[in-house]
Automatic annotation (TrEMBL), chain A:
InterPro entries: PhnI. It holds the Pfam family PhnI. This is Alpha-D-ribose 1-methylphosphonate 5-triphosphate synthase subunit PhnI. It comes from the Bacteria. It comes from Chelatococcus asaccharovorans. GO terms for biological process: organic phosphonate metabolic process.
UniProtKB/TrEMBL annotation, chain B:
GO terms for biological process: organic phosphonate catabolic process. GO terms for molecular function: 4 iron, 4 sulfur cluster binding; alpha-D-ribose 1-methylphosphonate 5-phosphate C-P-lyase activity; metal ion binding. The keyword Ribosomal protein does not apply. It catalyses: alpha-D-ribose 1-methylphosphonate 5-phosphate + AH2 + S-adenosyl-L-methionine = alpha-D-ribose 1,2-cyclic phosphate 5-phosphate + methane + 5'-deoxyadenosine + L-methionine + A + H(+). Keywords: 4Fe-4S, Iron, Iron-sulfur, Lyase, Metal-binding, S-adenosyl-L-methionine. Belongs to the PhnJ family. Pfam families: PhnJ. InterPro entries: PhnJ. This is Alpha-D-ribose 1-methylphosphonate 5-phosphate C-P lyase.
UniProtKB/TrEMBL annotation, chain C:
It holds the Pfam family PhnH. Gene3D superfamilies: Bacterial phosphonate metabolism protein PhnH (3.40.50.11310). This is Alpha-D-ribose 1-methylphosphonate 5-triphosphate synthase subunit PhnH. It comes from Chelatococcus asaccharovorans. One of its GO terms (biological process) is organic phosphonate metabolic process. InterPro entries: PhnH-like_sp, Phosphonate_metab_PhnH. Coiled coil: none annotated.
Length: 365, 294, 201
């Protein structure tokens, strides 16, 4: 077998070694273990699982370690690994009403059945660098337990509004209907809500956040209230063909945001609130909230609103959310383009030469 | 050999999906067939479409050649070749004539291809109308009705403004008299090679999730106007190494005062010619041209 | 598991699914790229009675749970249906127009071409691919084929087709870029007839 080996190949191999060296850093410093990453960099792990579309904290931790903590590189690693995994089963929809809630807040109601649960959040930390953390070995304060456990089922806050008909009905249970699969089907437009939500769920947090922000600054006419934001564990069930009944295959942590939006109503519909929905793996509140705002903006057509702004344009939004695609294409411009550049050089020289021939004549005329 | 991965990396279901897409692509020359592109272990924009096509086509008896800018030794070509050596354990070559599959970025090899050979193009943007109309819903309609006036207008505006069609690469073609098609960013110099080529030409756009094809012996016409017929690039000089005057030349800058020379972009073509005794004006510059990448 | 089905009269499928289907695919790719050329298949799976080996190869190579299949009466035996379901997991559909692949065991009695999906203007690829078993690829009436994949023209003599077939084909070709695509299957060989091919006497 003839295998081409040239300088390029040696350079590539060497660059891999350099990366390995940089990744390890000073060998005198103890190496990071995956458990340290899953336990102590949990929010980074959650983002990688979310946008990598694989719920596996250990694999996400490995990806982060391999990528030197670069989340987008880690997301890419996880996505590429995902390609090789067989699909064994399709789960039933998760029931977030039955979530083992660790955090639940509503901006719409001061109190509601089940109550507000602040839980672990940076919201009210003062963003002061905690120099005590720099000194390792600090004892960790223990949070107090509530006097009574939370109820097992906490109905979504938005159900309270729906009793009065003040908010649009949740789409009826469509289990069993075919669902778009963003991991297998090429995007098509106009996109259904299934395609939009899947795309946003794995979309780049920064991009979705920016779009969400734009909808609240006049580029989308959004007047949102967080109906409810909840985070906790839900169980995942599958129904094996041979059994015919659901079995629990494990718990995952998810963050869900139900955003309430104002809606004036139309000839057919009385005024009522509308919904925007966000869901993410792990504890990713920013992402879930941003997603719910963009989801609502993208529903403009079905609600009879004019689509005037970028966040309301499904082709624009869905085509540019994916950071694996975006990074690949933006960075490919550093690949050699000698041939095309040569073609452009030839043309520019030719056009300049022609212009130089024409201009002196014009001056003489 | 392949460790934890299937032969040629992709699972069999994905290969079947891509194979079905390829057959429809050949049946409708130049039409972009949407396919369920997968994430690959190489970055989007770096040849994932071509890689998925090659991975779905390649078998243990194939001999693979990978080129980027016409050269076998550019880093991305080396990287893709290594990928297939690793996941498919196939033989590789630099000789165009020995290859059964040639994956390419930005060039069509100078040597004539033959029946049975497969040329796989890496395509960054499969939609020739995309820069003129960003919406897929619109461009799909234009293809459905064969309405390509937008492109004609763009080219004509070039002529009005510059006196030339100012497109030098990825120059749009009409395939089999029907579909406006992007030849990928090959220089327009290579466009005529696509017409009636005996080989099978397959195009993969991974990020955009499109596959298209030009079957052998198919008409591929570069758009032009009666008063501005299509022409290809020509150089005054010849390749400094092999003396070729019929190949696409790359410009190499020799010093910081603008001194330069021209050499064949197709490294195999140049090498074959030199092996056959052809000599250019600066044959000893070869070493200077291939400084070891560091 | 395969053995258990074998004892029920099922063929075992490909000996090596990964490499055999790759090899068959390349033959099919060549068949579609060079219409009218006879492509020999190097690998054939075991197949039940009534299922042409070349057709079995094509189906195992290209079909799976994502490709609804329609098959004619000649292929409706329990053995063939079980084989298709077991080896490809492909759903069998009752309406020809719903099928991605239409499998014809008896060409003489096949449905008219317009019974199958033609694709639509925006997605002409969404049309049925017909796999038609024929008794011979060389001993039928001679026709002149031309179009993409053929240098000038090629004389082809597929046998066993119904009288109306080539008239229907002219109509199908007139719909280009819409239309069905055909693969002829015959023992150890396949031949492609994609929609862009013009056929004359």
């Amino acid at each position: 077998m003839y295998v081409a080996v040239k300088g390029g190949e040696r350079a590539i191999l060497n660059s891999h070694k350099l990366v390995a060296e940089e990744r390890r850093g000073d060998p005198a410093v103890p190496e990071l273990g995956l458990a340290q990453i899953t336990e102590q960099f949990r929010l980074a792990v959650d983002r990688v699982m979310n946008e990598g579309s694989v719920y596996d904290p250990e694999l996400a931790a490995l990806a982060l370690k391999q990528a030197q903590g670069d989340s987008i590189e880690a997301i890419f690693l996880l996505r590429a690994y995902r390609t090789t995994l067989p699909r064994i089963a399709v789960s039933r929809p998760i029931e977030t009403a039955e979530m083992a809630v660790r955090r639940r807040v509503s901006a719409a109601y001061k109190d509601m059945p089940g109550g507000q649960v602040l839980g672990p959040t940076y919201d009210y930390t003062h963003r002061l660098l905690d120099f005590a953390l720099a000194a390792e070995g600090e004892t960790v304060p223990e949070a107090e337990q509530a006097a009574s456990p939370l109820p097992e089922t906490m109905l979504p806050v938005l159900d309270i509004l729906s009793h009065e008909g003040l908010i649009e009905e949740e789409v009826a249970d469509r289990e069993g209907e075919p669902v778009f699969d963003v991991t297998r089907d090429p995007m098509s437009f106009p996109a259904g809500r299934d395609q939009r939500l899947q795309n946003l769920a794995r979309g780049d947090e920064g991009f979705v956040l920016g779009l969400a922000y734009s909808t609240t600054r006049g580029y989308g006419g959004s007047h949102p209230f967080v109906g409810e934001l909840r985070m906790g564990e839900v169980s995942v069930e599958i129904v094996p063909e041979e059994l015919g009944f659901p079995i629990d295959i494990g718990d995952i942590t998810v963050t869900e945001c139900q955003m309430i939006n104002q809606f004036k109503g139309s000839a057919e519909k009385p005024p009522q609130f509308t919904r925007g929905y966000g869901l993410s793996f792990g504890h990713c509140e920013r992402k879930a909230m941003a997603m719910s705002l963009v989801d609502r903006a993208l529903r403009c057509k079905e609600l009879g609103e004019d689509a005037l702004y970028p966040a309301q344009d499904d082709e624009f939004v869905l085509s540019h959310t994916d950071n694996v695609e975006a990074v690949g294409f933006v960075t490919h411009f550093k690949l050699p383009h000698y041939v095309d550049f040569q073609a452009e050089l030839e043309l520019v020289r030719k056009m300049r030469a022609e212009q130089a021939r024409v201009e002196p004549q014009e001056a003489a005329e | 050999m392949t460790g934890d991965y299937n032969f040629a990396y992709l699972d069999e279901q994905t290969k079947r999906m891509i194979r079905r897409t390829l057959l429809k692509a050949l049946a409708i020359p130049g039409y972009q067939v949407p396919f369920g592109g997968r994430e690959m272990p190489l970055a989007y924009g770096w040849g994932t479409g071509g890689i998925q096509v090659t991975a779905s086509v390649i078998g243990p008896r194939d001999v693979l050649k990978v080129i980027d800018q016409g050269a076998d030794d550019t880093t991305n070509a080396v990287s893709i070749r290594r990928f297939f050596e690793r996941v498919a354990d196939v033989a590789t070559t630099e000789k165009t004539t020995d290859a059964t599959i040639i994956q390419t970025r930005h060039r069509v090899p100078e040597a004539n291809l033959v029946e049975g050979q497969i040329l796989v193009y890496q395509v960054p943007q499969p939609e020739p109308l995309r820069r003129l109309e960003p919406r897929e819903t619109e461009t799909r309609k234009m293809h459905a009705y064969g309405e390509y006036g937008l492109m004609q207008v763009k080219l004509y505006e070039d002529i009005a403004q510059f006196g030339h069609i100012a497109t030098t690469y990825d120059y749009p073609v009409i395939v089999n008299g029907r579909y406006l098609t992007a030849p990928s960013p090959i220089p327009k110099f290579d466009n005529p090679k696509m017409q009636d080529n005996p080989a099978i030409q397959l195009f993969g756009a991974g990020r955009e999730k499109r596959i298209y094809a030009i079957p052998p012996y198919t008409t591929v016409k570069s758009l032009d106007f009666d008063d501005h017929p299509f022409t290809v690039q020509r150089w005054d000089g010849a390749c400094a190494l092999c003396g070729a005057t019929d190949s696409y030349l790359d410009e190499v800058v020799l010093d910081d005062r603008g001194k330069r020379m021209f050499v064949c972009s197709d490294t195999d073509y140049c090498g074959q010619r030199r092996a056959a005794g052809h000599v250019g004006e600066q044959p000893d510059m070869d070493d200077a041209l291939e400084p070891e990448a560091r | 598991m395969t053995l258990a089905f074998d004892s029920a009269g099922l063929g075992p499928g490909f000996a090596d699914p990964v490499f055999d289907s790759q090899s068959v695919f390349r033959s099919v790719l060549n068949a579609v790229a060079y219409p009218g050329a006879i492509e020999r298949l190097a690998h054939r799976p075991g197949a039940p009675e009534g299922l042409d080996p070349a057709m079995a190869s094509v189906v195992l190579t290209l079909c799976d749970l994502d490709t609804p299949i329609w098959s004619d009466a000649a292929l409706s035996s329990e053995a063939v249906s079980t084989y298709l379901r077991f080896h490809c997991g492909a759903p069998l559909v009752a309406a020809a127009a719903d099928a991605r692949f239409g499998l014809i065991g008896d060409a003489a009695a096949m449905p008219r071409l317009d019974a199958f999906a033609m694709g639509d203007e925006r997605y002409p690829d969404r049309s049925t691919t017909l796999v038609v078993t024929v008794p011979s690829l060389t001993e039928g009436p001679q026709r002149q084929w031309s179009g993409p994949g053929i240098l000038r023209r090629r004389t082809v003599a597929v046998a066993g087709l119904p009288d109306w077939f080539w008239a229907d084909w002219a109509l199908n070709q007139g719909l280009y870029p819409l239309g069905v695509d055909v693969l002829f299957a015959c023992g150890d060989a396949v031949m492609g007839l994609p929609r862009g091919i013009t056929v004359k006497e």
